[in-house]
Design a protein that fits this description.
Elements: E1 4-6, H1 11-19, E2 24-26, E3 30-33, E4 37-40, H2 57-67, E5 75-76, H3 77-84, H4 88-100, E6 104-109, E7 112-117, H5 121-128, E8 136-143, E9 151-152, H6 154-161, E10 171-175, H7 179-182, E11 197-203, H8 218-223, H9 231-241, E12 250-252, E13 259-261
Parallel strand pairs: 1-2, 10-11
Antiparallel strand pairs: 2-3, 3-4, 5-7, 6-7, 8-11, 9-10, 12-13
């Protein structure tokens, strides 16, 4: 039998695992082994999260969502999960990690939990900077007419937003789990002429969630250049940092406590 091991599970996670008959054990004294036995302590809350080296996609998505909101605006945790198209369990884990890093605040209002940024934008970005992951999972090359109306990314986006010179390829970002990816036919850049190709970044999360323009959001753009040694690029990225304080991804909807992605 296979048993999942967790550092901790919440009461919500415990209930979901048991309902789906998934065997698990956790360090906060929760044991469910249907083929052997079960033990549950009263303390089913998450244990503190330690040694967070790099954000997972869900951590980064929650951070970016809250980073680009209006000052001191809080959002229902369940609604955030719906907006970002990820599970409530993933949001719970992400919220616990970001709280441990003192990046966000959590507030209970009745039975609902609301999340908000704990710092101003630039302070939050500086504190999270060392933990940000590179959203780019893979880069492929396509024929120019094979991909249209994508979100500008990489050096192409950088050239439009700074003094960086025009790049060799137009470059776009697309979510790796989107349906369009399975239909893409990559080309060999060593064979085809540059003017016939574009570069496409396959992302670990959906870039369209964090922008209302044709360009990827500033934090994701900066993170996509991790391990880049080109001093010209780093100089231009300093200018991109200036966009963080004014970047907006949401607008108010008819309901006071909900948001709509632009």
């Amino acid at each position: 039998p296979v048993v999942y091991a967790f550092s901790a599970v919440t009461s919500y996670q415990r209930k979901a695992l048991i309902e789906n008959e998934i065997a698990f054990i956790s360090e906060n004294e929760q044991v469910y082994l249907p083929f052997l036995g079960s033990v549950f302590s009263k303390a089913s809350r998450n244990l503190p999260v330690h040694q967070i080296d790099s954000f997972s996609p869900s951590y980064q998505m929650l951070f970016l969502f809250l980073l680009y909101q209006e000052k001191e605006k809080s959002f229902n945790k369940s609604r955030i999960a719906e907006q970002l198209h990820i599970s409530a369990m993933s949001i719970t884990r992400a919220a616990a990690a970001l709280k441990e890093l003192e990046l966000i605040k959590e507030e209970k209002q009745g039975r609902d939990v609301y999340l908000s940024l704990a710092l101003n934008r630039m302070d939050a970005y500086r504190k999270a900077e060392a933990h940000l992951m590179n959203p780019v999972q893979e880069v492929i090359y396509l024929r120019v007419n094979a991909f249209e109306n994508g979100i500008h990314a990489g050096e192409y986006s950088l050239s439009e937003r700074s003094e960086f010179g025009y790049p060799s390829y137009k470059e776009y970002a697309v979510f790796g789990k989107s349906q369009i990816v399975s239909a893409l036919q990559s080309e060999d850049p060593g064979i085809e002429m540059k003017e016939k190709l574009i570069r496409v970044q396959i992302w670990r999360y959906d870039p369209s969630l964090f922008t209302s323009t044709n360009d990827v959001d500033p934090v994701s753009l900066i993170s996509s250049f991790q391990n880049e040694d080109d001093e010209r690029i780093h100089k231009c990225l300093k200018r991109i940092e200036g966009e963080i304080t004014s970047w907006q991804i949401t607008k108010k909807s008819c309901s006071d406590d909900s948001v709509t992605i632009c």
